[in-house]
Amino acid sequence: MELTSIATIVEAVGGRLVRGNPLMEIDRVLTDSRGDCTGALFIPLNGEKFDGHDFVAAAVKAGAAACIVSKDIDSSVPQNAAVIRVADTLAAYHAIAKSNRDKYDVNVIAITGSCGKTSTKNLMVNVLDDGALVYTEKNENNEIGAPKTLLRIGGDTRRAILEFGMRGPGEIAQLTAISNPTHAVITNIEPSHIGRLGSMEAIADAKGELLEHLPSSAKAFLNADSPWLERLEKKTTAEVITFGIESGDVRASDIKFTLEGVDFTLNTPEGKTEVSVPLPGRGAVYNSASVAAVALSLGESLSTISKNLSKPFGESGRMNKIKTPDGKLIIDDTYNSSPSSLKLALELLGKVNWPGRRAAVLADMLELGDFSKDEHFNIGLKHLPENLDLLITFGEEAASIANGAIEAGFNKDNCFVYMDFDMLAEDIVRHFTGGELVLVKGSRGMKLERAVNLLGGTR
To answer: Where does 235-365 show beta strands of DSSP type E?
Structure first.
């Protein structure tokens, strides 16, 4: 964000200047009063357990030059700060972010989907980073993080990559409205949020909000292999470009899976190229194809795309490989879990060459609501026996994975179910003799990185 006057901000947010100099300029917007606030505009936001207005005084004392508020501030707030009054501070934050984005002629690429968003974003950063790129950092993919990214856009920015997360309907529509994307990617539609939204149709419609708010001049990138393609295509007047494996305008073929990553031929309207991506699993193929489709639309060459897709990048808890002294190779995928991502991880376990036993330590997949037991059971029923020799589960829901696996013919003597982590911690080492290939995966709330540490893969 470049220098902007208080008067301009008042106009952008539709507020009223209570006090302060309208000609004063700021170039930073903060929502966190901790740390150095010198010269910044502080916007207090409300959470479930806090009211940001309680920290206005602290922000001003830490150097904030101005603040936006939706209620009266008390006498503890120093008089030297400009104060703008609005009805809703979050709406004001969004308005400032939108105003900043709209100042600049930049390509804004928005990414959403049920899974693969962050990996797709990271691959796209590798391919498109020319020194003039702004992108979502850490997990800043919500109604607070996305504006923060938009506010980093400046006169020297050519492209911005935004990741959009979602907890319910209307959220992606809101993020799309303030970011005005020129390119939109939906990685897939899977039952990751079905506990909150209630049906696959509702998930598709919530993710599809990204498409409904695109201008006709934009481009939409959709998964050609998804059964939801037709439903999504109908939501936009933008040009639709597809990616996939079975079909698509940009398509991967001749795929070879290894523990180090995936190798494949990328088939595009511009020709073919060989690609090696240092991220294992079928999901990496789809993510890479979507990135290639976007990059081609932005004028990048096939050779540049192929070269940059091969760049390494690390994501803590996302398919990280850890070797232990006793010869185990741990695949640490503890960042999160969903039915679709777990299927892909188990498929990888079964496909790669490995001389020893194949094992998995699996915890609950959360946010599946009334569908949870069936989703867990079906993982065991359809994806376990052909891919594993040893199964360990942790959590009440994950126990259904074991039940499904046993029904499908998995040896119950190689299946161990734990409801209590302390019991798992006490037993886990005895299940391994060394030399195993071990997938460790569960939803973030299950904190299964603790199991990685116990197996000798200290992070």
So the answer is: 239-244, 250-257, 262-268, 271-277, 320-323, 329-333, 358-363
In this structure, what token pair is assigned to residue 93? 């934050």
CA 220 to chain centre: 18
More confident residue, 194 or 242: 242
The closest of 172, 192, 200 to 184, measured between CA atoms, is 172
For residues 67-82, b (16+ Cβ closer than 10 Å) or e, as one string? bbbbeebeeebeeebb
What confidence tens digit (pLDDT) does each residue in 248-259 have?
999 999 999 998
- Report the distance separating Cα 60 and Cα 55, nearest Å: 9
In the chain, count H helices and then E strands.
17, 22
**Rounded Cα distance, 232 and 240, in Å:** 10
Distance, in Å, from the CA atom of 314 to the CA atom of 332, rounded to the nearest integer, reads 12
Which one-letter DSSP state was computed for residue 51? B
What's the confidence (pLDDT) of residue 315? 61
Helix, strand, coil content of the chain in percent (nearest 5): 35, 20, 40
Distance CA 374, CA 125 (A): 37
Contact 103, 96 (CB under 8 A): no
Mean pLDDT throughout 417-423?
Answer: 96
Mapped onto helix, strand or coil, the DSSP state of residue 369 is: helix
For residue range 126-155, what is the model confidence (pLDDT) as tens digits? 999 999 999 999 889 999 999 999 999 999
Residue 307: band (very low, low, confident or very high) from pLDDT cuts 50, 70, 90: very high
Q: Kindly state the DSSP code that residue 279 receives in the 8-state scheme.
A: S
Query: Does the pLDDT at position 457 exceed 60?
Result: no
